[in-house]
Specification:
The structure is a homodimer.
Chain A (H helix, E strand, L loop, with lengths): L2 H6 L8 E2 L10 H17 L3 H22 L6 E4 L2 H11 L7 E5 L4 H14 L2 E5 L4 H4 L4 E7 L13 H4 L5 E4 L11 H4 L3 E5 L11 E5 L32 H4 L6 H17 L1 H21 L12 E5 L3 H10 L2 E2 L1 E2 L5 E5 L6 H11 L1
Parallel strand pairs in A: 1-10, 3-4, 3-5, 5-6, 6-7
Antiparallel strand pairs in A: 2-8, 7-8, 9-12, 11-12
Chain lengths: 360, 360
């Protein structure tokens, strides 16, 4: 893998040690160029049938790209607007009775907790939590669904491998916000029923994109509630029309062709290098950063072989500002003393040097 | 109003008599340029906190622009991804019992019928229909909601004025797909509880944008189900966090800053001319087209003072293709013998001449 060629695809690295893909990935030049091309066409040719045909073709390309990195069948993949959009789709699409228990991990993201709070108020479901490390042992006879991070957003811990076994008994919904494009994902091997992931983080696409994988056995058991024209098998059938019985039935109602082609081209940049190489380089470089931070005397939060590295700072907000001044972009985690760096295959040792140098 | 200056904002008219805003409006140059500027910034500066601050500011600008054309308070306006997205939000956010009746008009669009079909299967609600012209008289004691077009998509008929009176007794959901930006909309005067509209048709914005107005008295009675980080009043409160009690709580989960600024700038182009002038010119020009088609011996479908003009052709698909060859863009309406032209303030008599000339 020629990582300098990959890095050169991302203009942000001309000036900045950008270590913030866990918020939004760097945006490759090719993604922006594709969106600009589409916009130009829309302005000059209008947006009648040929534009729709372009949009529909781009949607199917986008579905296929997500399927590749999920190691899934294309027809089981839905196009969403965000990780949370996929989570909502699953939670609202299942049937619930008062008292049904959902087991989650501690430290989950508001993007999972918000939609779960809705279910508590709407149906009286009960949400119980356990540490992510102990979630397999915390499952009991009342658990109807396990919903947790694949990679914990605060520190990069991985969900335990034993979850795959749990998934043979009860459905598991994985929040892949820090998983897809960051660590190896093989949805069947993970044993989950649902995997929700963002397009704008480790897949380097626009905000407003994401994906939801639904296991073939669960495709028809998640009832789509947000059903628009493109989700319907026979729109002319009116009230009798049904959602497509595959990923298309679970797609978000509308996303522009500009956004869709940008998401496709961003994934192309990474796929051209090879996903295995991208994931390997990112994990190795993140491990190097964790080691160097520890060697510098800092306390690094426990983590797995992932792309997030979090460590304690006396004044995290001041540290973020100081790093920004030095052209290094990381984030703090409100309510904690942690800074979090997100390390991708597009980063290099020079970025780590700049981070450590600016930390002092 | 200098309509030539307005027309010059839209590159599509350099070549084409584009009469298809009822599908997607012409996209003004300024909208594309704003998106391109944002993309450039995202590529070069990354998408950390400053990008989010830009995005949030643009969202509030977008909310204010929709409020202006809705004649509504900004805080009652939600940002959606499509008309249907807003319709789903309302239908899923209300409480239903089996047997509850929803009254709709005949010839509604699949974007309303699809979400209603979900409610029938999900809750056993009953959907009854009446001609749009007779919908006021069709309301009875069992009607829990009236849901219908503000402007009928097939022929440009207007919902009857008497609906405002109905709205004092029971909630009315207006599908404004062919209303907002096309005909005068004053949501309070219309007497509706909910008004759902697209951003990509008569407001000339990107696909993937729309708006939902919710009457102040209904803001807290529509329970948001799709709740993401930006919808929550206190994301750190986890399961206890609640959606904002205003339009922000009803916003779609995610839309990119690029799309949002494009939507804002498109509305700016029209607002700079003045909405009253835009609506007046469009309605007058559409009326002229209807008259000229009738004078040419064609049967024009009954319509109101709107921007849609539909008429019968022996072979509608062939006519669309022939017109396209001549640089005239209109659409046919599947399952009928109708062609539909959408006439905006950006059109001129020359577009009508080209249409009539190519029809032969």
């Amino acid at each position: 893998m020629d990582h300098e060629l990959l890095r050169a695809e991302f203009p942000v690295f001309q000036e900045t040690a950008y270590l913030n893909a866990g918020t939004c990935g760097p945006l490759p030049r090719a993604a922006g160029a594709a969106a600009v091309g589409l916009l130009h066409g829309a302005e000059h040719q209008g947006r009648a049938m040929p534009h729709f045909e372009t949009m529909l073709a781009a949607q199917e390309e986008r579905r296929a790209r997500y399927a590749e990195v999920l190691h899934a069948r294309t027809e089981d993949v839905a196009l969403t607007t965000a990780t949370t959009d996929g989570i909502v789709h699953v939670l609202q699409g299942l049937s619930w009775r008062a008292g049904d228990e959902i087991l989650i991990a501690e430290q989950e993201h508001p993007g999972l907790l918000g939609p779960l709070g809705v279910l508590v108020r709407q149906h009286g479901v009960v949400v119980r939590s356990a540490p992510l490390e102990d979630i397999v042992e915390a499952v009991d006879a009342n658990t109807k669904l396990v919903a947790c991070s694949h990679v914990r957003w605060t520190d990069g811990a991985l969900a335990p491998a034993g979850l795959a076994e749990v998934g043979r008994q009860i459905p598991v919904l994985l929040d892949g916000a820090q998983g897809l494009g960051a660590v190896p994902v093989d949805v069947e091997a993970l044993g989950c029923a649902f995997y929700a992931a963002p397009g704008q983080k480790w897949l380097c696409g626009p905000i407003g994109t994401g994906t939801l994988w639904i296991h073939p056995e669960w495709q028809s058991r998640v009832e789509p509630r947000a059903v628009g024209y493109l989700n319907l098998d026979t729109p002319s059938a009116g009230l009798q029309s049904r959602p497509w019985p595959d990923g298309r039935g679970h797609d978000a109602i509308a996303t522009s062709a500009e956004v869709t082609v940008a998401a496709v081209r961003a994934m192309d940049v990474l796929a051209d290098v090879g996903w295995d190489a991208v994931l390997e380089r990112a994990a190795t470089l993140a491990g190097t950063l964790a080691d160097r931070l520890a060697e510098s005397g800092r306390t690094v939060a426990p983590r797995g072989r992932t792309t997030l590295v979090s460590w304690s700072e006396a004044d995290p907000k001041a540290a973020v500002a100081r790093l920004n001044e030095a052209g290094v972009v990381v984030r703090d985690l409100p309510g904690t003393d942690l800074l979090r760096a997100s390390v991708g295959a597009w980063n290099d040792e020079g970025d780590l040097d700049r981070l450590l140098g600016a930390l002092g």
